C-alpha cells in the first residue's frame, strides 16, 4: 500500500508541476520540498515510474 501511495504522489506532483510550475518551484526546501522532489523524480524517471504504475495496477487488479 505504501508503494501505491508513493507512486500516486510522484505522478500527482509531476502532473501539477506540468500545469503550474511556480506552485511547486517556490517550495524547494522544508516540508513542502518533498512535493518538489517528487515532481523531479516523476519528470526525470518517467519511464521507470510508468512501468512501476503498470506493475502496481496489474498487481492490484489481478493479484489482490
- What structural class do helix, strand and pairing data support? mainly alpha
- % residues in beta strands: under 5%
Number of helices: 4
What does the largest sheet look like? Answer: none
> What's the helical proportion of residues?
over 70%
Outline the fold blueprint.
Elements: H1 2-19, H2 21-25, H3 33-44, H4 46-63
What does this structure look like?
The protein has 64 residues and is mostly helical. It contains four helices and no strands. Helix 1 (2-19) crosses helix 3 (33-44) and helix 1 crosses helix 4. The longest helix is centred in the N-terminal third of the chain and has 18 residues, at 2-19. The radius of gyration is 13 Å and the shape is elongated. It starts with a helix and ends with a helix. This is Protein kish.
Distinctive features:
about 60 residues, 4 helices
The gist of it:
The protein is 83% helix and 0% strand.
